[in-house]
Amino acid sequence: MTAFHPSRIDPRITGAGLGLRRDFMAELQQKMISGELLNAPDFFEIAPENWIGMGGRYARDLHEYTERYPFVCHGLSLSIGGVSPLNIEFLKQVRSFLDTHQISIYSEHLSYTNDGSYLYDLMPIPMTLDAAKYVADRVIQAQDILGRRLVLENVSTYAMPAAEMSESEFICEVIQRADCDLLLDVNNVYVNSINHNTNARALIQAMPSERVRYLHIAGHDNEDPLLLIDTHGDDVTKAVWELLQFTYDTIGVRPTLLERDFNIPELDVLLTEVDYIRDEQTSFLATHRSTRIDLSA
């Protein structure tokens, strides 16, 4: 039997967030403490693998951040769809890290990253019913060790090996069987729609909205008109911003985080994109309130 896992709701995680990078930690902290930063992110995201076991100045800096601001964790190496057994010791380390920093949300990729050794990439899981059952069993095992629901992210892919189900069907099957939650990456939805000639909006509509804990948005690289690469190294494109608007229209506003892992610009440039997320949320909420008033008149 699966252990009880805490509520999906974390009231601290709201608004527009930013992936925290050591490149700009000191500058951001200084601006936030001094009060000169008016458009500070509402929450931050880190990869636990980059911080577990770290000491010294960076560890002290992280504690200062997590004591002051809300955080989520986004993992890189759990390999939830992999053939190798789950790394139990690693999951225990993650739980200890989450508990130490009072972080309730831990997300991972719906993919595999290990076939006996680390692959340094997010490999696609065959979208079959057997694979969905297999992944769901591993999610349940992971959740019992973590003591909290795992949040799975839809990933960008460049091949669909042995697929017997659509991407949306596969995601929903895993989520339902495992009783876990969803990190909906809007950029990944768009990238896959181009790479596989599918309907991005239809996938958004098919997602179980009650399971969506938060959203990711990021930039991608246009390798070819029919091939996009999810790099997190470019500005968010107009098409992805529009898909984010559609996502809000479909499932309502969710906490939304900007990912930028490469070609990191000046901090002010990053914060402008975070602000744009916040503007989109405010615009949706204002329109929604206006609509409710009009309907009740």
Known CATH architecture: Alpha-Beta Barrel
Query: How are strands sequenced across the largest beta sheet?
Result: 1-2-3-4-7-8-9-12
Specify the overall morphology. globular
Query: Span from first to last CA?
Result: 50 Å
* Fourth CATH level, the homologous superfamily: Divalent-metal-dependent TIM barrel enzymes
Which structural class do the helices and strands define? Answer: alpha/beta
Order of helices and strands: EHEHEHEEEHEHEHHEEEHEH
Supply the number of helical segments: 9
User: Can you summarize the main beta sheet?
Assistant: 8 strands, parallel, barrel
In what range is the share of β-strand residues? 15-25%
Mean pLDDT: 91
Number of strands: 12
Radius of gyration from the alpha-carbon trace, in angstroms: 19 Å
CATH level 3 topology = TIM Barrel
CATH C-level class is: Alpha Beta
